[in-house]
Specification:
The chain is an alpha/beta fold. It folds into two domains: about 200 residues, Vaccinia Virus protein VP39 (Rossmann fold, 3-Layer(aba) Sandwich); about 70 residues, rRNA adenine dimethylase, C-terminal domain (Helicase, Ruva Protein, domain 3, Orthogonal Bundle). Helix content is about 40%, strand content about 15%. It is built from twelve helices and nine strands. The chain has a seven-stranded mixed sheet with strand order 4-3-2-5-6-9-7, with helices on both faces. Helix 6 runs parallel beside helix 8 and helix 9 packs across helix 12.
Length: about 290
């Protein structure tokens, strides 16, 4: 079975009477080069486990099963379970779970299915829930070696963005706090069945053993970041003074920014992740 061949893929899904759902963002990858790039970037071997989110018809799942000790594929759409069972029939090391990754007990699942194994997440993520899934995975990053995902090209650029550009924001900082992200390759719409309307990119997040910056209160740190980017047109002093998460006067914030050598009229997108850590630590001391 070669599901990277669009005709073979179509034959498999026709066999089971499956029809694509736009609401679930179902676009199945069928480009051999991109599949190979994902597997290479994931750095998998026969001692590893792979957790796939949104398995679809099993195109990527089959490649994961070939390259790991254990592959667990989570798929929300129950109509795809018979398709996946057919596609993965030859792989004893592949298991299918019909469920919502945002509702499953992720820690329990990894502990049960991958006991003692290093685990990587590999997935072609539905565009409409990309960010919630990535944040959920990062919240449990201590369980993972890496996260390699196909996402909308613009989201990949936001994930890897550096300070100063329009792509840089809260998602950039959330990802870069727990991992070192890298864009691996770009997939044009023709790499999928059916083709999406936009280009996609494969991005790998190498999980850090320690966060990239030291903060005194992680929740406060992220509240500062969310406040800074909640109203991008405002100066940072004004944005933080209007934060729903803490009560500070504009003059207090301006003074802290001046002490950091940043200037009171700076905007959030100009601050590095280290700057945000320093600022949140200063705020922690006076709250």
């Amino acid at each position: 079975m070669n599901l990277s061949n669009p005709e073979e893929l179509k034959n498999l899904i026709r066999k089971h009477g499956f029809s694509f759902s736009k609401s679930l963002g179902q676009n199945f990858l069928t480009d051999r080069e991109i599949l190979d790039s994902i597997i290479k970037a994931s750095n998998l071997d026969k001692s590893c486990g792979a957790l796939e989110i949104g398995a679809g018809a099993g195109v990527l799942t089959r490649e994961l099963a070939k390259n790991t000790a254990k592959t667990v594929a989570v798929e929300l759409d129950k109509r795809l379970i018979p398709v996946l069972s057919d596609a993965l029939g030859e792989f004893e090391n592949a298991e299918i779970i019909n469920g919502d990754i945002l509702k499953l007990d992720l820690r329990g699942l990894i502990s049960e299915k991958f006991a003692g194994m290093p685990v990587s997440v590999v997935a072609n993520l539905p565009y409409y829930i990309t960010t919630p899934i990535i944040i959920r995975l990062l919240e449990n990053s201590d369980l993972l070696n890496s996260i390699t995902v196909m996402v909308q090209k613009e989201v990949a650029e936001r994930i890897c963005a550096k300070p100063g550009g329009k792509e840089y924001g809260a998602l950039s900082i959330a990802v870069q706090y727990k991992s070192a992200p890298e864009i691996i390759c770009t997939a044009e719409p023709g790499c999928f069945t059916p083709p999406p309307k936009v280009a996609s990119s494969v991005v790998t997040l190498r999980i850090l053993t320690e966060p990239s910056v030291i903060v005194k209160d992680e929740k406060l740190f992220f509240n500062v970041v969310k406040s800074a980017f909640g109203q991008r047109r405002k100066t940072l002093s004004n944005a933080l003074a209007g934060s729903p998460y803490f009560l500070l006067q504009k003059e207090q914030i301006a003074k802290m920014l001046d002490e950091m050598g940043l200037g009171s009229n700076i905007r959030g997108e100009k601050l590095s992740i280290s700057d945000f850590a320093s600022l949140s630590n200063k705020i922690y001391e006076i709250l």
